Amino acid sequence: MKILIPTAKELNLTAPSAIPNPLSAQTQAVLGELAVMPVADLASFYKISPKRAELEWQAIQALREGTAQHAPALYLFDGLMYRHIKRQDYTKEESQYIEKHLAITSALYGVIPALEPIAPHRLDFMMPLKLDGKSLKAFWKEAYDKALAEDEMIFSLLSSEFETVFSKKIRQRMISFKFLEDRGGKLKVHSTISKKARGEFLTALITNQVTEVERMKKLNFAGFTYRPDLSSDQELVYVKEV
To answer: Which residues lie closer than 8 Å to 23 by C-beta, 6 or more apart?
Structure first.
């Protein structure tokens, strides 16, 4: 069983450092394409200022040369979803649950264990990087599928940007989640609700050691409860009354 979460643009650069593992061949290939871009091209690619692009160029070179600072991915990313995940004072059982079941999907590193040490970087699947004529999604598809080949149950807290990297065969095995607010009988969803709820839902999974769909349906977290009338076999819907 695997639970998948996406990366985040916001980073915590004070996260505790960790010794990295060797880079995969795929990661090295992506870095190779980025490393040969002049600063001016990086500024255009990232849609950032030349000054910021210079810093990105230095970070890419450091990562490629093995001198970049690394931190466990779960602590390095610091977006809204991550800030609503329990990330400290784990019990032994909670730590084991995370190590066994939680994975993060990345456009630079692939599908990695949540506590894998990685370096701060800027890359997502919407960026127009080509590798051997392939888009980033096409380039990573085989490796993404292989990472989940042995997992019968796949729980996705991903956005479509990351889910569509996987082949249709893998996506058909995924169970996804939707989080809504009930405001006077009107159901509403937006990115802020979803990101916060994903983190709170994941915290509930970790705290309660949940590995089965039926137990997920019984969870109550941050005011959300399961709504069978809105759900399907492939998507579980939770609603919070406001």
So the answer is: 31
What is the C-alpha to C-alpha distance for residues 11 and 1, in angstroms, rounded to an integer?
A: 27
Q: Residues 175-234: pLDDT tens digits?
A: 999 999 999 889 998 899 999 999 999 999 999 999 999 999 999 999 999 999 999 999
**Separation in Å, CA 103 to CA 75, 78, 96, 133:** 13, 16, 13, 28
Distance from C-alpha of 100 to C-alpha of 180, rounded to nearest angstrom: 29
Of 211, 203, 213, 204, the residue nearest 236 (C-alpha): 213
Q: What is the pLDDT of residue 184?
A: 86
* C-alpha pair distances (Å), 110 with each of 74, 87, 133, 188, 235: 14, 22, 19, 32, 24
Residue-wise pLDDT for 71-91, tens only, equals 999 999 999 999 999 999 999
Contact 78, 8 (CB under 8 A): yes
Q: How far is CA 76 from CA 118, 168, 172, 178, in A?
A: 8, 30, 30, 25
